[in-house]
Structures are given as C-alpha cells and as structure tokens.
TrEMBL record:
Cited Gene3D superfamilies: P-loop containing nucleotide triphosphate hydrolases
Keyword Aminoacyl-tRNA synthetase: no
Sample GO molecular function, one term: ATP binding
Sequence similarity: Belongs to the ABC transporter superfamily.
Keyword Lipoprotein part of the UniProt annotation: no
Pfam families, alphabetized: ABC_tran (PF00005)
InterPro entries listed in its UniProt record: AAA+_ATPase, ABC_transporter-like_ATP-bd, P-loop_NTPase
Chain ranges of the ABC transporter domain: 3-231
UniProt name for this protein: ABC transporter
Signal peptide (from-to): none
Domain of life assignment: Bacteria
Amino acid sequence: MSLVATGLSRTFGRHLAVADAGLELRPGRICGLVGPNGAGKTTLLLLLAGLLAPDDGTIVIDGSPASPEDTRRLIGWMPDVFGTWESLTAHEILTTFGRLYGLRTASARQRADELLELVHLSEFAARPAHELSRGQKQRLGFARALVHSPQFLLLDEPASGMDPRSRMDLRSQLRRLADDGCAVLVSSHILSELDEMVDDVVLMTGGRTHRPPPAAGHVWRIRLAGQSMSDAEQRHFDDEPAAAGYLRELIRSGAAVAEFAPTSSGIEDAYLALDPERR
Ligand SMILES: Nc1ncnc2c1ncn2[C@@H]1O[C@H](COP(=O)(O)OP(=O)(O)OP(=O)(O)O)[C@@H](O)[C@H]1O
C-alpha cells in the first residue's frame, strides 16, 4: 500500500507548525524525515498517524482519501517518548494494545510474546513499565507500534536512548519490515545512521517539506598507512567515478592507502545546505 500526503497544514494558535507539507510512502521503502528542532516533524507525523487533525490537506491511501480511522488502523506509530500505563507490565501493555486492535485475548498474548522476543525484552515481560530503562522503554514502544502488523510505520526519533546493539537491531528490523512490504517513515537527528538505513529522504524546515537537492559532490578523506587523521588529505570529488579514478592512480603510484572515504554522508550535506532555522 502507498500513502500520498499533500498540502498538509496545521497551526497551533497563530503559529504555523506545518505548512503545505507533502510526502509519499511506498511499500518496501524506508523514508527519512530530517530537519532542525521545531521544523514540524513531530506535528507532521501526528497528522499522518491520524492523531492530530490537519487544518488543510489530504492523505490518500492506495488512491482513496483516508479517514483518521483508516490511518490509525493501517499505521503503526512510535512516538519519541513512550507514554503508557506505567504500572502495567510490558506484557500487559502489548496484550492490551493487541486487544484494542481487535485481537482475541489468546492471540494478543501470543503476539505480545513474539514482539517482546523481537525487541529482546522477554526477560522483562513481567516488569511494570516504570521499572524499564529509557532504552528499554523505546524498544517496548517499537514493539507496541508493531502490534497490529501495520502497513505503514511512523517512527519519531526511534533510536534515542537505545544502546548501539539495539540501534543495529532496529535498523535491521526496519529493513526486514520494509522487505515484507511495509512503508516506513523515520525521523532522526542522527544523520550518519539514517544514511545507512533509508532509501528516500524528506527534509523539513519551517513546517515545509523539501526534496534534497542533487548532491554537488563530496569531500573525501585520503589517509595513508601510519598517517594520523589530522594529517590525512581532504579532497573534493564531483562524483564516485572521479573518486575511484583518483584512487586507482594513487594505488598505481604505490601509495599505501589505508582509508579512502567521504567525510560526510549525503544526508548530512543536504541538511547543512538548508537554511539553519532554529527555534
Ligand atoms: N501542542 C502545541 N502547541 C503549540 N505549539 C506547538 C505544539 N506542538 C508543536 N508546536 C510548535 O510547532 C513547531 C513544530 O514542532 P514539532 O514538535 O513538530 O517540531 P520537530 O521538528 O518535531 O522538533 P524536534 O526536532 O525538536 O523534535 C514548534 O515551533 C513547536 O513549538
């Protein structure tokens, strides 16, 4: 299933948080949502999840206008902070959400078991949520977003608070979900990590969405064996074939190249090219 949002706008009082924003989510693809603090990312995600009413704009799923009920049924939503019933156990929370999504009690319990295993929280199944660490709560929040096997997954800063192994797990789980046909939208400030994960990028500033401009090349770091990072050469190449040609010549000349890589990711470059709009 694909989702196309166009012209979404939302004000809070006199403040325009999202202005004429649009994006497309397609099955099998992971899209990154990137922008400075206050750009409107969370507000846009809430509009897409059907949890906040837009002042204007449309959300179309597979060619038909989607109601908030449709989107809530089809979309899994992971907020940046896990807010839930703190005194319920991890297992009870997932089972309750399964029931709310219409699963029978036995199926909801089984789904909770599966999801706790997926996010490596089985040993915390009987712990109340308030006893979980921040990273464990994030993982439980990810599991909660998956309870009803959604077609679309919206994640707001999912990796914040997660340890490195959990982040790696999250990346591979998102890829697996996409491979199974899910369309994923993930907002993050960790651009290098996002670069390894996403197929498409949407930039956001001042409530508006933008496509990243075509890359105007990269600066590459060329470090010879035994050289420190600060002594390594930095050289700009317009594209990968130009970089590869230079590397070929270096090797041919006998240089002992230990490292040859772009110093920044494509998303970082696109982000830094935005007008910094901090609020
Ligand atoms: N409930 C609200 N009431 C009033 N203003 C709000 C509300 N929610 C968000 N805003 C404002 O809307 C703008 C966009 O906020 P939003 O949380 O969507 O940004 P964001 O891009 O997710 O930021 P961050 O990267 O810091 O999480 C901000 O200026 C914020 O102050």
